[in-house]
């Protein structure tokens, strides 16, 4: 007898197979149901079987393909980033270490346990990069911002107002984090390379985004670009002295720092000074700088008079008037910074030293780049009040670096011109 079923029976079997309800297989059941080899309804936080048996319901989370994200991104960053909208984030309790140890080897490596370190985005909500950026932001708010404020009244500006602008213009926020990374790099030497890499990343992103806005400056973006220019100065100075870089001159030309610093001139408008988010800062500064315009040559320090005698011996110089104005401005800054003729006194408003750099004529920059002795001598006298800026990590090492560079840039016969600045700073030539 043949084993082949009758045609009618085969039709009946096929009919039953067609009517059988299909279902999608899932591998996301809880560990208890998997161990008992029963179907899990995958309800969360506890499936039905675990509730009935009063078991601790635990799920395995696949973290083999974590998402890569930034704590903040510009629209340009997002445009070039891969689309992550299709990646589904699964929220579930972490498995215990004992449960993870009993899992098959292929699942054990991807199971998230309760003791996993912070940084796995799937179960903490943060990836390693966002945690690092939060560390930089925390450091800026609680520490770095205080070191950037020349006056107590400006601390809130750096700690609050600058960040408010940064959340609208991310290049400001990138620059804030870059400076914070430099600050941490300066003191956490065991993680120097780590913080240096963070600094380079944020500085590069911030500079790229800010540069893209320069051709089309608006009233709104003008404030953000001004803050970026100021922060960029802190960023460049905070890296520390670089070989051949003496701020206003060097073998490679004018320093990157000085170019950014002078660029502020093209951004400031009367409207910014009178209204807007930066008005308070400009108002405080203008009150402190009022003495600059009230200066009289008859009251200047003896050291500046010595500098004027040097100029008179070169009265045939084609740049005589330019040098005279430069010395006048330097004398004003000396009066603002020092209480008396003694250069060792406590500075009154040390940040005024940067005003002299801001006002330097273009002709002076040409002369000092050519290493003209009078231009170098004037700069050496500037270094004295530069050294009066309260000790801060941003300017660490710059004073000796500048006076040494100026000394060796001058011919031996002219070095006596800067004897007084060397004595005030306490720098001794190595030869």
Helix content bin: 55-70%
Number of helices: 23
Which term fits the overall shape? Answer: elongated
Proportion of residues in β-strands = under 5%
Q: In angstroms, what separates the terminal alpha carbons?
A: 117 Å
Description:
The structure is a single chain. The protein has 23 helices and no strands. The radius of gyration is 34 Å and the shape is elongated. It has helices at residues 7-19, 31-36, 48-52, 75-80, 97-101, 105-108, 121-124, 128-148, 155-168, 170-187, 192-213, 219-238, 256-263, 270-274, 279-288, 290-293, 302-312, 320-337, 353-359, 362-369, 373-386, 398-409, 419-425. The longest helix has 22 residues, at 192-213. Mean pLDDT is 76; it is low at 13-22, 61-71, 73-96 and 103-120. It is 56% helix and 0% strand. Helix 8 (128-148) packs across helix 10. It has three domains: 26-123, no CATH class; 128-274, no CATH class; 294-425, no CATH class. With 431 residues, it is mainly α. 29% of the residues are buried. This is Zn(2)-C6 fungal-type domain-containing protein. It comes from Dendryphion nanum. Keywords: Nucleus.
């Amino acid at each position: 007898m043949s084993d082949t079923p009758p045609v009618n029976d085969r039709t009946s079997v096929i009919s039953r197979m067609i009517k059988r309800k299909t279902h999608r297989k899932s591998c996301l059941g809880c560990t208890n149901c998997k161990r008992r080899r029963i179907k899990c309804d995958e309800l969360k936080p506890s499936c039905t079987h675990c509730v009935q048996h009063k078991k601790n319901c635990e799920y395995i989370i696949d973290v083999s393909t974590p998402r890569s994200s930034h704590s903040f991104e510009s629209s340009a960053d997002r445009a070039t980033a891969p689309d992550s909208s299709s990646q589904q984030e699964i929220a579930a309790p972490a498995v215990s270490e004992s449960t993870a140890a009993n899992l098959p080897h292929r699942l054990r490596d991807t199971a998230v346990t309760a003791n996993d370190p912070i940084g796995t985005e799937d179960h903490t909500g943060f990836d390693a990069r966002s945690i690092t950026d939060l560390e930089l932001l925390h450091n800026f708010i609680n520490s770095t911002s205080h070191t950037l404020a020349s006056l107590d009244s400006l601390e809130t500006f750096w700690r609050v107002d600058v960040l408010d602008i940064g959340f609208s213009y991310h290049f400001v926020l990138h620059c804030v984090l870059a400076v914070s990374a430099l600050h941490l790099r300066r003191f956490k030497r065991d993680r120097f390379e780590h913080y240096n890499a963070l600094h380079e990343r944020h500085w590069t992103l911030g500079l790229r985004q800010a540069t893209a806005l320069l051709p089309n400056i608006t009233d709104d973006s003008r404030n953000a670009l001004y803050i970026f220019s100021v922060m960029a100065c802190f960023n460049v100075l905070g890296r520390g002295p670089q070989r051949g870089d003496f701020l206003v001159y060097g073998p490679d030309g004018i320093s990157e720092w000085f170019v950014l610093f002078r660029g502020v001139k093209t951004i400031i408008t009367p409207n910014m000074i009178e209204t807007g988010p930066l008005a308070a800062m400009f108002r405080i500064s203008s009150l402190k700088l009022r003495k600059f315009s009230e200066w009289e040559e008859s009251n200047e320090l003896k050291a500046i008079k010595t500098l004027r005698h040097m100029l008179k011996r070169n009265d045939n110089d084609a740049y005589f008037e330019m040098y005279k104005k430069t010395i006048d401005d330097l004398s004003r800054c000396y009066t603002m910074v020092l209480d008396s003729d003694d250069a060792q006194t406590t500075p009154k408003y040390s940040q005024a030293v940067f005003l002299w750099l801001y006002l330097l004529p273009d002709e002076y920059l040409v002369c000092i780049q050519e290493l003209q002795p009078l231009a170098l001598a004037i700069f050496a006298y500037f270094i004295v009040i530069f050294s009066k800026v309260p000790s801060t990590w941003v300017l660490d090492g710059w004073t000796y670096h500048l006076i040494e560079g100026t000394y060796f840039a001058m011919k031996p016969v002219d070095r006596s011109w800067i004897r007084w600045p060397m004595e005030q700073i306490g720098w001794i030539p190595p030869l």
